[in-house]
Amino acid sequence: MHYWKGLEAVPAGYGPSVVTLGNFDGVHRGHRAVLRRLVDAARERGAAAVAISFNPHPAQVHRPGTSPPLIMGIEDRIDSLAESGVDALLMIHYTLEFAQATAEQFVKEVFVDRLGARAVVIGHDVRFGRDNEGDFDTMVELGRLHGFEVLGIDDIGEDRRWSSTWIREALVNGDVHTARDILGRPHRMRGEVVHGAARGRALGFPTANLSTDASGIIPADGVYAGWLVDEAEVRWPAAISVGSNPTFEGVSRQVEAHVIDRPTEAVEDFDLYGQQVVVEFVARLRPMVAYRGVEALIEQMRDDVEHSRAILAAD
């Protein structure tokens, strides 16, 4: 996949192409259905399949401080879009100045002049251009004016339209099962393993603690069964704790994964500090609760590990 960081990176005279655009946060099943239609339409026309996205997310520019959290980081978004089979990804740096382009200015400069679009694949709820002035009908009119076809995509989902908003709602409630159903894979966080308070190690359950700037939405506080994927792309079964452990005072909110059933000979050498790892959430076991004493906490942690092991054996 060609990756163009900004309009100026697109080769002169590029095209013909079939184009779609979106934020693609999560690259969920609905997004992937649109991308499959994009690729199919491009192949039918002997053209390149091009996805257009934005960084930062427009909501972060228009509503800084109050925009919704992102489901995935930019690197994961790029990787997921590459896996969809598109020929090229144009990542536009989104600014308030860029947002002032009218619907027609945006379409002519990006779709027509830069990408040589012969067709555009979009949902019927699309909005684009200054103040979101452009909609599906606008795109059809611009297609007639500039010589490209518009292929509409109906809402995609089961019972409800698959959307990034629905995924966020599910994760806020700790419903990683619903999030997985919409995403088509477990929800992921990615970040560096950093040193923590080492309480887990002292209790016999050492954990890999994600840095506070890890990408991906942090689901609701609780304990989860999931996977830890290290830099060598080895997937380790894990019991994952999210939150500030209420049994101990003064602990800030964190995500930490206890790897289950490490080979005995690897225990001393199993050093993840400084690695960029991925944590995947498969199932929520329980909410975060306070225990009366360390022994009760240890017993619960043993149960969490056994429960996680059973769930992940069937995953």
Task: Give a description of the structure.
The chain has 315 residues and is an alpha/beta fold. 30% of the residues lie in helices and 27% in strands. The protein is built from 9 helices and 14 strands. It has helices at residues 29-45, 58-62, 74-83, 103-114, 136-146, 164-172, 176-183, 199-202, 294-313; strands at 2-5, 17-21, 48-55, 88-93, 117-123, 149-153, 157-158, 160-161, 187-194, 208-210, 222-229, 235-243, 254-259, 276-286. It has a 6-stranded parallel sheet with strand order 1-4-3-2-5-6, sandwiched between helices. Strands 9-10-13-12-11-14 form a 6-stranded antiparallel barrel. It has a two-stranded antiparallel sheet with strand order 7-8. α6 (164-172) runs antiparallel to α7 (176-183). It is elongated. The model has no long low-confidence stretch (mean pLDDT 92).
Annotation, overall tally of beta strands: 14
Rg measurement, Å = 23 Å
Task: Please give the count of helices.
Answer: 9
Shape: elongated
Helix/strand/pairing category: alpha/beta
Q: Bin the strand percentage.
A: 25-35%
The ordered string of helix (H) and strand (E) elements is EEHEHHEHEHEEEHHEHEEEEEH
The major β-sheet equals: 6 strands, parallel
Mean pLDDT value: 92
Strand order of the largest sheet: 1-4-3-2-5-6
Helix content: 25-40%
The poorly predicted ranges are none
Distance from first to last alpha carbon: 31 Å
